[in-house]
Amino acid sequence: MSYRTQVITVFGGVGFIGRHLIRRLAKSGAVIRVATRNPGKVSFLKTSGSVGQIVPFATDVTKDESVARAVQGADIVINLIGVLYERGSQTFQSCHVDAAGRIARLAAAAGAARMVHVSAIGADANSPSAYARSKAAGEKAVLAAFPGATILRPSIVFGPEDQFFNRFAAMAQIAPALPLIGGGKTRFQPVYVGDVADAIVAALELDGVQGHTYELGGPRTYSFRELMELTLSTVRRRRFLVPVPWNLAGTLGGLLEKVPLLAPALTRDQVELMKRDNVVSPTAAGFKELGITELGTCEIILPTYLSRFIVGGRYNTLTRDVSVHEKYPSAR
């Protein structure tokens, strides 16, 4: 890949997927504008490229003039903006629909050759989840303004900075049990963040992907219970797994989402979202169609970053024996 004479504008570049993507884009030699509300947060990304290659760009995605400046002269525009819960002005409508449509419209007006929009598996205008409905509305707004945009829908994305496995591993440090929302039967297809970044790069390189949608899932499907068991095994903890009925989970989510300042561990909308499997549709195009066949697995990658939750560290033989042979009950 070589875009040495091109400019790439990335919205949401300081987030989880963004930091992995920008490292890959930097290898192309392109100038990368990281459009963000807080340019100071881009500092850690500058070392991913050469001097002056990665440019912080103060941008307010709620204003046309601000977005227009960010995409002016850009050859490629990538939108990674997304929120998992609503808080203040950051609503699903404002982030997933209004901002996405505005970016696509102004990118098209600026003459950008390509656009990639990252959505999510489960995007559905008829979903009971506001998150999923907003993702579907965002895709519609993007394609209406920029018909050649490529839409990518990842399942749960995992990696060193994820908010899924890290959260439950941390919970296992202090809680005697982990919850199985809805009994833990919902299926997921976790996908490694590096593979998602590779898919975005592929969507910029390949012909014939414009205007198409790709669903991105990892090599294996797990139930929620299996993911909790895998997390506990990785961090060498033994905890009860307690089924939580949907109605109780909804009530709990309603309480947790009202806690000020803190990111809620669960919301009512997330409970609705979990009532449907989060896996790639059998008829959907995906990694294979993007030319990617080797995918990272949870079993291989999780130990590389969840080891910080292991008592004594990854190479502590005591906790290893407890996990495998249950020899030392006092170390539970």
From TrEMBL:
Record domain NAD-dependent epimerase/dehydratase: where: 8-217
Source domain of life: Bacteria
Single GO term (MF): protein-containing complex binding
InterPro entries assigned: ComplexI_NDUFA9_subunit, Epimerase_deHydtase, NAD(P)-bd_dom_sf
Protein name stated in the entry: Complex I NDUFA9 subunit family protein
Organism: Azospirillum thermophilum
